[in-house]
Amino acid sequence: MNSHNEWDPLEEVIVGRLDGAAIPPGHPAVTVTMPPWAARLHGLATPFRYPRRLVEPAQQELDGFVALLESLGVTVRRPDPVDHKRPFGTPDWSTRGFANACPRDSMLVIGDEIIETPMAWPCRYFETHSYRTLLKDYFRRGARWTSAPKPQLTEALYEPDFRPARDGEPVRRILTEFEPVFDAADFVRAGRDLFVTPSNVTNRMGIEWLRRHLGPGYRIHEIESRCHTPMHIDTTFLPLAPGRALVNPEYVDIDRLPPVLDSWEILVAPEPDPIDDRLLKFTSICGKWLSMNVLVLDGVRVIADRHHTGMLRALEKWGFEPIPCDLLHYAPFGGSFHCATLDIRRRGTLDSSAP
User: Fold this and answer.
1) pLDDT tens digits along 201-214
2) Secondary structure letter of residue 100 according to DSSP
3) What is d(CA 305, CA 303) in angstroms, rounded to the nearest whole number?
4) Which of 116, 167, 207, 259 lies at 20 to 30 Å from 16 by C-alpha?
5) Residue 274 carries which DSSP code?
6) What pTM does this model have?
7) Beta-bridge mates of residue 115
8) Measured between alpha carbons, how far is 243 from 264 in angstroms, rounded to an integer?
9) How far apart are CA 120 and CA 158, in angstroms?
10) What is the pLDDT of residues 291-326, one digit of tens each?
């Protein structure tokens, strides 16, 4: 295991699965992160599995993505299939699962260490169990394997009667500081510098836990987000190469970025292409900025969605080599290329990754 940033040459990656995926059970922390139309639909659909009409096109695109990675020489590993409708719980609550479609959320790789994260959605409490076969294999081969403290996820963690901010209001988040929680997908890596967005699944106690755990050799910088329902940094800010970062102009005030980015080239993401598929528009649990959710292969080649022609053209203009691929129908399961993957091995060193 060896991965220090988002752009060194990719050699091995975990790609998620759709097998056994279930619509996540209703919970305020779940629905608050969704677009309003998806949240309303979710309330009606939550007891059921995803319908075949959603699974089949997403599975076909996922298979094509895996085949593309393997054709480019990348080793692809997969989690074990799981029936996510099986009930589970703790002494304080009970629920059912969601999916293991997005390994980027539940595990964070820092160098030769993999960290299981303390996630804020109860339905994802045991999600890393589907990766245990892989985690034990990496541990036996020398990786460091850490699990952050398992959260209680009681009512004290969530603001009562919460509502997202409206236009012109300061951003609100549903999480209190009752205990540390964070999703790994709220962090991106640039060597000794990590960037994070506090969100509806990541609180400042979680950020502080990671800061203390990593110690003085790393620096964690907060990116302020203007998103009304913030969740996961990879549709807000994403490093693409040494000293070059893709930024969402709707969510980020470029003049208020952390000072460490003063010397970086800031690439402003183009407006996403509209989604014409009516069913997809109303079943996606993600926002429109999934066009930014790209996977960097080596600091030059970037896998991006074929539908988002504006992003493909922008990447070419900036000197990258975009590789078009289909993954548009993955949105009902939680993301796109960056979300659906977890970098395990990139060819590079910690100190060589600075811009």
Assistant:
1) 999 999 999 999 99
2) B
3) 7
4) 207
5) P
6) 0.94
7) 108, 146
8) 5
9) 9
10) 999 999 999 999 999 999 999 999 999 999 999 999
Q: Which residues pair with 222 in a beta bridge?
A: 196
Distance (Å, rounded) from C-alpha 55 to C-alpha 184?
25
> What are the pLDDT digits (tens) for 100-111?
999 999 999 999
Q: List, in order, residues 6 or more apart from 263 with CB less than 8 Å away.
A: 243, 355
The conformational region for residue 57 under phi > 0 = left, psi -120 to 50 = alpha, else beta, is: alpha
Both tokens of 124, joined, read 């994802």
Q: Count of residues for the chain?
A: 355
Q: Does residue 115 sit in helix, strand or coil?
A: strand
Q: Is-contact 22 84, C-beta < 8 A?
A: yes
> E strand or H helix at 94, and its extent?
strand 94-96
- One-letter amino acid at 110 equals I
* Contact partners, residue 12, CB within 8 Å, separation at least 6: 74, 75, 76, 77, 343, 344, 345
Handedness of CA 233, 238, 243, 247 (dihedral sign): negative
CA distance 264 to 134: 36
Identify whether the C-beta of residue 20 lies closer than 8 Å to the C-beta of residue 83: yes
Whether residue 83 contacts residue 32, with contact meaning beta carbons closer than 8 Å, is answered with no
Contact 98, 84 (CB under 8 A): yes
Which alpha helices (H) appear in the chain, and where do they start and end?
A: 28-31, 36-45, 52-71, 103-106, 132-140, 204-214, 278-283, 309-317
Q: Which residues contact 226 (CB under 8 A, 6 or more apart)?
A: 171, 250, 251, 252, 253
DSSP 203-263: -HHHHHHHHHHH-TT-EEEEPP---SS---GGGTEEEEETTEEEE-TTT--GGGS-GGGTT
Residues tagged active-site:
183, 232, 339
Q: Who contacts 177 (Cβ-Cβ below 8 Å, separation ≥6)? A: 203, 204, 205
Phi (first) and psi of residue 343, to 5 degrees: -65, 125
Mean pLDDT of 16-28: 90
